[in-house]
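Example 3.
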Amino acid sequence: MDHQGMVGLALGIFVFATTWCLHVVWWRTSRPQATARALIMLFGGGLALTLAGGPIIAAGLSFDLGTISLLRAILVAGALAAAYIATYPALEAISPTLALLDDIAAAPAPGLSCQALFAAMDDSVLLHPRITDLLNEGLVELVGDRHRLTAKGARVARIFTGLRRLLGLSVGG
Amino acid sequence: MMTILDLLPPILALIVNAGTQIITCRIKATGLIGSIICGFVLGVATVIGSQLTFAATSSSGDAIGEACANLLIFLCGSYTYFHFLNMGETARRIRLLRELEAAPNGLTLAELSQRYHAREMLERRLGRLCSKGIVTETDGYLRVTRKGVLVVTGIINFLTAVVLGSDYRRSR
């Protein structure tokens, strides 16, 4: 019986899991400043190595890895990587929504007061670290005391402004 | 023998997902969340329908393996697309970028804080949580009423501890 569908699925999951483990080791040893760029390079590199090395390793192991199965594995690993990279900001940045839920759930009866909430989560917690992230990612630069978009930041901003216009939505945030 | 057509179902489904979401949202048939749900449902129908169609005509002997792989690709792709939309809706960094886009001479820290500050961030998010019935406010006190959502915070906290260390959140 042909198992090429399962082969592609299993290989894709294996590639993603291996790359993810490397990511954890790297981050726990010395987390890069520009994490988004590093994640894309790491998972992209994993996919490229699989594409180049997959048939060679399969031949060495006398294992039947068809072209379509290899492409399916790349799609599976790529889709898993994209989903993880999309989730990663919630790990690194304190998500206000998740932090809100954690703090409210942890408060004893009668609950968390709005006053205490606003006092605990101010600009130093919710705003300044995000500005630092934008500076580290090269999307914003500091000119004197003024923050300005770099060319890269302007491109990213245009993508999201364009998307909201396409969907007919307001400013968001 | 498998062909490139065997890889089409999830790609087709993702196109249907995104296309349906954009059209539904633009014509204001539903709000943003409703359009995302519509797109996802049609996308699932597309991946299942096209998988069944290709399985009927394909000579591949591993329809189950292919179906599982194609469904996983679609689900991950749909989830990523949802996050992309959500970033435009709620992400602080994207909002900051758009504020700076509207200020060609740049903004000082104080000016940025005036335009977008912690209080606004919290009020928007609390508003969403309360409107969905996840959090309720009584006499100025907040409680989580739909505790199922805490599973998500638990997963994120666990992943954070694994990837960034257990003292990461405390140090932030």
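The first strand of chain B starts at residue 135 and ends at 138. Chain B has a mean pLDDT of 88.
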